């Protein structure tokens, strides 16, 4: 299975937002996991890897 891109994760979160409140436990869990994965992807996308030269940061 391929990993979702940041844009795909953003689109999924937008769909959840337009759908409104989640009543189902599975939907709620999925939304929580999507938000966490989106935040991780955003953090990686915003990192300047030049700052990591010489071990200054941990990936």
Characterization of the model:
The protein has about 60 residues and is mostly helical. It has a domain at about 1-15 and about 25-45. It is about 60% helix and about 0% strand. The protein is built from two helices and no strands. The protein is elongated. The mean pLDDT is about 85.
Tally of contiguous helical segments: 2
Shape category:
elongated
The parts where pLDDT drops under 50 for at least 5 residues are none
Order of helices and strands: HH
Main beta-sheet annotation: none
In whole angstroms, the N-to-C terminal distance is 23 Å
What does this entry show, briefly?
61% of the residues lie in helices and 0% in strands.
Keywords:
mainly alpha, 2 helices, single chain, 59 residues, elongated
Annotate the secondary structure layout.
Elements: H1 6-19, H2 25-46
